[in-house]
Queue: 2 jobs
Job 1
Amino acid sequence: MLVLGLESSCDETAAAVVEDATRVLTDVVASQAEVHARFGGVVPELASRAHVVNVVPVIDAALASADLSLDDIDGIAVTQGPGLVGALLVAIQAAKAIAYARDLPLVGVHHLEGHMAAIQLEPNPPPFPHLALVVSGGHSSLIQVNGNGDVEEIGATRDDAAGEAFDKVAKLLGLGYPGGVVIDRLAKQGDPSAVPFPRAMTTAKTKDDFSFSGLKTAALNRVREHGQPKNEQELADFCASFQATVVEVLVRKTRKAARRLGLDHVQVCGGVAANSKLRAELRKAGDEDGFAVYVPPPKRCTDNAAMIAAAGYHRLARGERAVLTMNASSSLPLPSGAHGA
Ligand code: KG4
Ligand code: ZN
């Protein structure tokens, strides 16, 4: 089954065609990073407008690059939420229009369900049940994945998401938007023990939850007290110390949850899963504790439509159909209960 996936929940307009949730035929992502860079974060109204401009060219480019036409498509999957409502609506309207005009089945997909499905596009994906660390610009969660469309959130951030912390600290340091990838690069030359940052949420009561706002404030206070890093080495040290703190908390909580739940397969996904230190440290923890670690390639960690098509395939295969009155939902609940293809 060839599924056309569409995604516009934040600042990427994306279209992809995936066969049976395994083989990616085409995968096009138009980033709006330049539109938002000078604001240091995503401006919702500008995001919606850019999606409107980009959505049809992106779909056309995706189909053309694989020598496909809409005649070849068997079903459509689109991100229904969570995300920016005005942004989500653009791909949803495009998906509905194509579904209606071509009489194709349509399903809405939860954005995090998409992130967790990205690993299915790789050889040897994790079996069910497994643990997923989902870390993006909007979410930081530990999720037990029991099957396709059947997940259970066991912990989440109580304030900022991990990616948001990366972006805000990058903005504080004048490194531009999005900041995660820049901090990742600069941190490679830095000393991770140079700046002492607080490790939050480590008590038994808050065991599976995260908190990154204290770390963000500590970074701000550090700059207030000591001024901006004075040279390249100080900047690299700041980035390495901040990154090491985020990664340490993420890895510590993930390995504890895996052990407690008896899950010996762990995937990490979402934009922050592109972080080289997180990938390396989680692999090291897996080697030490005896769990297998699964990480999508960096381009499938950040937002894309191949992951939406993969997640949508399972819904379509189960016979799910969205109605043409489907609406965007900024707070769509995670899917639970459906075991299937
Ligand atoms: O999944 P994603 O593309 O969008 C959301 O669903 O939010 O994640 C974007 C986030 C941004 O905060 C970005 O700074 C972060 O992922 N990110 C990274 C890296 N690449 C992207 N964070 C740390 N290290 C990276 N290499
Ligand atoms: Zn995302």
Note: Residues 107 and 322 are 5 Å apart (CA to CA).
Job 2
Amino acid sequence: METISPLATEVRPYGNAAIAEASRLILAGQCVAVPTETVYGLAADATNRAAVAGIYAAKGRPAFNPLIVHVPDLESAERLAVFDEAARALANKYWPGPLTLVLAARADNGIAALATAGLSSIAIRVPAHPAMQELLRVSGKPLAAPSANASGSISPTRAAHVFKSLAGRIPLIIDAGATQAGLESTIIALTDGVPRLLRPGPVDLGLALSTGGNIEAPGQLASHYAPSKPLRLSATSAEEGEWLIGFGPTPCHANLSAAADLAEAAANLFDLLHHADASNHPKIAVAPIPFEGLGAAINDRLARAAA
Ligand code: TXA
Ligand code: MG
């Protein structure tokens, strides 16, 4: 049996020294946790098969679940995938930002087949966070980066969440505080002319979630983002043993947004799920969240956390 000796995991504040060290590790084929505007990502050189394999190993992620490849700008993205007018229009409007496009991959793009799980399509994103932007530019590599958490568990919006989930498995976490959006990027597939929503997120294009018979974003398994305790949805008050996550002006253990602001609730969602999971209450309950706008993405994550 393979034994993985634990790594010393360093947490460094975001800055030039941390980016230089992260870039050195990336070029040496290692993975590094780095903040984006959505959640913290676990980045590795997408052109290096062994480095990409290291992401799957650190997360315990099934290798049939492909990764998002991050690039610094549209020009770099066009070297990896085929953009039609519709794709270019979305890229121009939302990049850099929390939108991932699934497009037909270029055959000679140099991306390790493991990063795309052997699919003929590729998921690409130009992130806005300066830490990820700088790491892309300093390393000069396209970076495969899933959320920096053990597969299936709650996504990380703070360096401490990453540390709790992956300490001993990765050499470096860059800490730039809490992420701004708090939910993973919106994923749109443009592989057959008509845009299809594969994962709701911070960018709202007014599309309904695509419900093709097969799982189109293989990572969108029904049970995901799961805390270790039972989670009850649409709870109007705490029952025996429950730690209640509220929304709007209501008594609760912690509030997603007392002002019922959906952007604030999205930014706080995973942090409060981490808190609830670590509390001494055996169960978690969450207040009803309206479905409009960002509420669709919040409810999507909650449904998976409760499944
Ligand atoms: O905000 C985000 O997107 C974060 C940050 C780090 O960028 N990343 C992230 O990655 O959420 P991850 O691996 O947790 O989720 C990527 C999703 C998975 O559901 C995966 O199945 C889907 O993207 N995906 C990747 N490549 C795909 C492809 N070619 N076709 C369909 N879905 C794909
Ligand atoms: Mg994830």
Note: DSSP finds eight helices and 14 strands in the chain.
